[in-house]
Design goal:
25% strand; Rossmann fold; 250 residues; alpha/beta; binds adenosine-5'-triphosphate; 4-stranded antiparallel beta sheet
Length: 250
């Protein structure tokens, strides 16, 4: 298996408290991988360590075999890893179209000269329209993004995360706060938009996780206690005791 992401002995402390306590994890290219675990297990922290928002206290993060530990997020992005945020980070006063186009301008290896931009106007516009079509917002393309419904904003955000051509997409709780039908639509969108890419997501909704993920890692108190197929995770006694069982009892 070729690794899209490889974590080796990864550690993160905040002051004296160690939150991520030696994580080893390999996520294969083209895999859809979910990270689950109880509240406070360190899922978001792990997410931020991979995407470069937090510096690592120990160990390494590799992207396609290259050590990216402690690189700034924009450099990691240029190397092909794109992430969304739990809180939407679109520009509310800009139109849907402009938001997507803006995301596209960050395509890795893109040259940021003005003339280069002008040259690529048509190509950019056409690609932006394709992305908007993919996320089902064609009829909403000219309205300010801030006017979209919550679910539409999340779809836009997922579209922007994928638009730049990154081959590793990280989504933090992509269906949080959605209704059942919105969640179903989001699952389909994520499936569609990540074809041929690697997906890493943190998600609380077990329906989403078991529906989308090829493999699931279970993080408990900063350690991965299991990393396996959905079926094996569902049947794992250790996981049930540490996490799923505890949830079922709630
Ligand atoms: N910047 C920070 N400074 C200090 N402590 C932090 C920081 N970020 C997270 N923590 C602590 O690390 C622990 C893990 O938090 P984290 O948000 O990574 O967990 P999580 O598994 O994502 O939780 P949840 O499912 O509730 O979102 C928590 O005890 C939290 O208080």
């Amino acid at each position: 298996m070729t690794a899209a992401i490889e974590l080796k002995g990864l550690r993160k402390s905040f002051g004296p408290t160690e939150i991520i306590r030696g994580v080893d994890l390999t996520i294969g290219e083209g895999e859809r991988h979910a990270i689950i675990g109880p509240n406070g297990a360190g899922k978001s922290t792990l997410f931020h360590l991979i995407s470069g928002r937090y510096s690592v206290s120990g160990g390494t993060v590799s992207l396609h075999g290259e050590n990216i530990s402690n690189l700034p997020p924009y450099e990691i992005y240029r190397k092909g890893l794109s992430r969304s945020f739990q809180v939407t980070n679109i520009f509310p006063n800009m139109s849907v179209f402009e938001n997507v186009r803006c995301g596209l301008m960050w395509v890795r290896d893109y040259k940021y000269s003005f003339w280069h931009l002008v040259d690529r106007q048509k190509e950019l516009n056409a690609r932006a329209m394709e992305v908007i079509e993919e996320i089902g917002l064609t009829s909403r393309r000219n309205i300010p993004a801030g006017v979209l419904t919550y679910a539409e904003q999340r779809a836009l955000e997922i579209g922007i995360a994928a638009a730049g051509g990154a081959d590793v997409i990280m989504l933090d709780e992509p269906t949080a706060g959605m209704s059942h039908s919105e969640t179903d639509q989001a699952i389909e969108l994520i499936r569609k938009i990540t074809v041929g890419k690697t997906l890493v997501m943190v998600e609380h909704d077990m329906g989403v996780v078991f529906d989308l993920a090829d493999r699931i890692s279970v993080l408990v108190y900063g350690e991965i206690i299991a990393s396996d197929t959905p079926e094996n995770i569902r049947n794992s006694k250790a996981v049930q005791e540490a996490y799923l069982g505890a949830e079922a009892e709630e």
